[in-house]
Specification:
Belongs to the ammonia transporter channel (TC 1.A.11.2) family. This is Ammonium transporter. InterPro entries: Ammonium/urea_transptr, Ammonium_transpt, Ammonium_transpt_CS, NH4_transpt_AmtB-like_dom, RhesusRHD. One of its GO terms (molecular function) is ammonium channel activity. With 482 residues, the chain is an all-alpha fold. It has 22 helices and two strands. Helix 2 packs antiparallel against helix 10 and helix 12 packs parallel to helix 15. The chain is globular. The N and C termini lie far apart (77 Å). 53% of the residues are buried.
Length: 482
């Protein structure tokens, strides 16, 4: 029996298609998507104070959905399409069947696969920003903020660093999977937006215990395991480079988690589960720009550094620098993403292996993609210094871009809808803002009214280590004495 013409095998298997690469890329994209939905939804929902669990989860869910509409509507091609200016692409739809079935600009798979893979990266970025704004941002303002920031900030960073026509790409910047494009940008934008939105209520800022620690851990586990696709998929092939990236990712993360945990134990006398989560995140973020272009021993060193320096800035410097204390960054996105992403970008400039970089970038130019350490070793010191300079230039560009665009966007939104919830909404949380609560008796919607039951969720019942994450204005010695 003859197949209909539109079902002929060669129609779905063009010459350029590598089915293994395509399958891996779609699987990797799904893993990254699971980091957001449900990963960050339940991570935020569990880590937030009980009265903000619904709001925190819904902010993440909304961001994921609205970014997809923007992505296929205009912003994918602003990031990976034709050149408009040196740092930005032309806006255009990514909906045409012919366009989506053509070969992607990177990899042996259709453009549709690339659109989906890059979407999940684009979607997780504003969700990370939301981690700095939980507990006080007006949801209407968030609805405006996400598409505006995505369009006028994320696309510029992605085009400049990842698009072959981008000015930083042409210079030879190394950002394997988004240390700058995703984590540095989200950390800086989150911190900037938190400045404009203002702090949580005094009560929330001083007492912000997780409402469900096990749910928080489940979300954190999805983040960790989902990073297999985050960094492994960045090679755009089911290759040895993907395998190296995956191994480096998990090794660095484990070392960072253990380092943070050891520091908590040594200085505060108690191992903290929230500290372990923080160390996990900083390790994941730090290795991201380097995952497929460094050796495993370098990933271990990066894990130690990503466990130590963000720990010091969060647990010590944060309480000594007035400006850091004055900005209420709810989940410490500045320390875990902006700082860890910067460290990753700089350490990539130090440890990047020239051979691995040339495989990844398919670049014969021996004056590009040379880590400073290898430049010193092989007598190409100038090339190594140049690479480090490019990494610092890219870091500076992303920081300035996000401070400027985030500030302008927040100021414009504030002319339309308040950035901040009113006092009643800040006091009551989900019950007033959404008319819903995270925990109720199943079936009849009744709330727990028994004060004995409510006492189970009282912040005083939680281990004191959990209060460290709420960024209370205490000195490290006071924290240790709690």
């Amino acid at each position: 029996m003859e197949l209909p013409k539109n079902l002929l095998p060669d129609e779905g298997s063009p010459d350029f298609l590598n089915k293994g690469d395509n399958a891996w890329q779609l699987a990797a994209a799904t893993l990254v998507g699971l980091q957001s939905v449900p990963g960050l939804i339940i991570f935020y929902g569990g880590m937030a104070k009980k009265k903000w669990a619904i709001n925190s989860a819904l902010m993440a869910l909304y961001a994921f959905a609205v970014v997809l509409v923007c992505w296929v509507g205009w912003s994918y091609r602003m990031s990976f399409g034709e050149k408009l200016v040196a740092f930005w692409g032309k806006p255009s739809v990514a909906l045409d069947e012919k366009y989506l079935l053509e070969q992607a600009f990177l990899g042996y798979f259709p453009t549709a696969t690339m659109v989906f893979f890059q979407f999940v990266f684009a979607a997780i970025t504003p969700i990370l920003i939301g981690g700095a704004l939980l507990g006080r941002m007006h949801f209407g303002a968030w609805m405006f903020f996400v598409p505006l920031w995505h369009t006028f900030s994320y696309t510029i960073g992605a085009y400049s660093i990842w698009n072959p026509n981008g000015w930083l790409f042409k210079l030879g910047i190394i950002d394997f999977a988004g240390g700058f494009v995703i984590h540095l940008s989200s950390g800086v934008a989150g911190f900037t937006a938190a400045y404009w939105v203002g702090p949580r209520t005094t009560n929330d800022k001083e007492r912000f215990p997780p409402n469900n620690v096990l749910m928080m851990l489940a979300g954190g586990g999805l983040l960790w395991m989902g990073w297999t696709g985050f960094n492994g998929g960045a090679s755009y092939a089911a290759s040895g480079l993907a395998s190296l990236a995956v191994l480096n990712t998990h090794v660095c993360t484990a070392v960072s988690l253990l380092t943070w945990l050891a520091l908590d134990y040594c200085f505060f006398g108690k191992p903290s589960i929230i500290g372990a989560m923080q160390g996990m995140i900083t390790g994941l973020v730090c290795i991201t720009p380097a995952a497929g272009v460094v050796q495993c021993w370098a990933a271990i060193l990066m894990g130690v550094i990503s466990g130590c320096i963000p720990w010091f800035t969060m647990m010590v410097l944060h309480y000594r620098i007035k400006f850091l204390r004055s900005v209420d960054d709810t989940f410490a996105v500045f320390h875990t993403h902006a700082l860890a992403g910067s460290l990753g970008g700089i350490l990539t400039g130090l440890f990047a292996v020239p051979k691995l970089c040339r495989i990844f970038y398919n670049a014969p130019d021996w004056e590009k993609y040379i880590g400073l350490g290898y430049g010193l070793q092989t007598g190409r010191t100038w090339a190594g210094l140049r690479q480090m300079g490019i990494q610092l230039l890219g870091m500076g560009f992303i920081i300035c871009l996000n401070i400027f665009t985030t500030t302008i966007i927040c100021m414009l939104i504030n002319l339309i809808v308040p950035l901040r919830l009113n006092e009643e909404e800040l006091e009551m949380g989900d019950e007033v803002v959404h008319g819903e609560e995270a925990y109720a008796l199943w079936g009849d919607g009744d709330r727990f009214e028994n004060p004995k039951v409510n006492s189970v969720y009282d912040a005083d019942e939680y281990p004191s280590a959990m209060s460290k994450f709420s960024m209370v204005s205490k000195t490290p010695s006071e924290l240790q004495m709690v």
